[in-house]
Amino acid sequence: MKEQPIPSLPGIPVLLAVIAAAVLAGWLFVTAVAPDPGVNPARIIASAALVALSVFVLVGLYTVQPNQAAVISLFGKYVGTVKDNGLRWNNPFYAKRKVSMRVRNFESGKLKVNELDGSPIEIAAVIVWQVVDASEAVYNVDDYESFVHIQSESALRAMATSYPYDQHEEGQLALRSHAAEISQHLQDELAERLADAGVRVIDARISHLAYAPEIAQAMLQRQQANAVIAARTRIVSGAVGMVEMALAELEKNGTVRLDEERRAAMVSNLLVVLCGDRGTQPIVNAGSLY
Question: CA-CA distance, 57 to 34, in Å (whole number)?
Answer without folding.
Answer: 29
